[in-house]
Amino acid sequence: MAFQSPQKEPEMNRNVERIRQAMEAWVGQDLDTYRTIYHPDAVLHGFAPHPIDVEGVLAGYRAFFAGFPDIDFEVLDTIVDGEKIAMRFRVTGTHTGEFQGIPATGRGMNVQGMTIMDFRDGKIAERWNQFDQMSLLQQLGVIPTSPA
Amino acid sequence: MSTQQNKENARRFFLAQDRQKGPLDLELVASDYRATIGSNPTMDVAGHSGFGVMFYQGFPDIYHTIDDVVGEGEQVAVRFTLRGNHTGNFMGIAATGKSIEVGAIALLSFREGKIAELQAVFDQVGLMQQLGVMGG
Fold first, then answer.
1. Smallest Cα–Cα separation from B31: which of B87, B112, B104?
2. What pTM did the predictor assign?
């Protein structure tokens, strides 16, 4: 796991540091620790057609861990603006387990995403995510590279 | 340029695409501008303008709603929603008349007040599902 920590005021970095710790837990597939970055009533957008709760997101991550047991995560950009943090990230892994009904292909995944997190009292209250699912499906060979 | 100015220009960038029906506002982008959108190959100014035009041909009434702008220094993230009706040909898909609503987040990197790079992820799978050309 790589995490480029930007040079910022320590107070501004507190939420960034919390995310760094949470993502360390995520890469270790320790969702009990990871979940503490969220308020229990956090609302998460972009993981499904409608907003979902923390339990829903964790279920999605379990599916990823099952499909990509060597999953890794890298932060590419971090933008801190008040209580909001935007990040561009990359998720990598090898598809050696069943993932969302797709049997293991042995192929590599290298997919980027963007996320915006809104903090309240040091925990995420709301999050908006865009993960490049189209690239993921192309890399797994589920859909052709040129959809048109 | 201040963060505030960059945030304002990031907003203007997307609204200009609506006004011009696809092409980029050349006042806002650097000459060596690069854009990487989802799984598509990296594009230059002309490439991204053409990519935009393709969308406005397929969805002539499509428009951006800016939902959030998060900025720090030379970097600005913009969360927006695209809404429109599929009344034209889009990437070989004949008009379905369906209305679409697609979320996106873009990260814009500024240099001397101009946008030098755009990296964006939008719900491409959701778009295809709403058009009925992909299962899910």
1. B112
2. 0.94
